[in-house]
Amino acid sequence: MTYSIVARDPATGQIGISVASRFFAVGHAVPFVKGRVGGIATQAFVNPTYGTDGLRLLEAGAPPDAIIPILTGRDNGHANRQLHMIDAQGRNAAFTGENCVDWCGHLVAEGVSVAGNMLDGPEVIGDTLAAYQAAMDKPLADRLLIAMQAGEDAGGDKRGKQSACLVIYQDQDYAWLNIRADDHGDPLRELRRLYAVAQERFLHVVETMPTRENPHGMTDRRAIDDTIQRLEDARIAAGRPSASFMANKD
Question: Domain range holding 13?
Fold first, then answer.
């Protein structure tokens, strides 16, 4: 019912997952991420404990290729599951159960994996991976969205479209970006709009939030306000409308 990409950006250490499906609120069910630990996508006949317990095992130091047999070995329904993951060092692994609905399968490459089930064909994950690898000069969020659109253009979920999400963690326990389209006619397009909205103000504010290393965060917001205003002035001067519905509301 789903295809997804799990990746680690070697330049920034960001860990991200993007997923799309003809299923309501796929962003609630599939992605599990923790900063400095790793990311896990559990899909097909979802087992959320693959995500929760898998992250605990990653945090304890277990490598991804050792975690998959632990999770599937205790689960009598594992033949109906699909799972792929990456750790903070970039090690990755994937599993597709033999009873997942065709077309189903996965691809694993350096720093990235793509998996899907109930797809239009193998080109969905093939094109997703190829698009990701061709966009390595772009920020991770852009790269993941480009990759997912390539998979959609190749056929995506063979039942159609309904929901999608993009989640990225940096080195904290909270997400740097977590956007979802839970019930939408073109969810990947909506994700791109939400990402554009996030770039106008939200992501600049996130950079000021407290961290483990700086529990106070930025207490003088004048610098960030100046940055946001400068970007808004440049957008207006270029004649570009805001991507936000609320900013364009009369």
Answer: 2-185
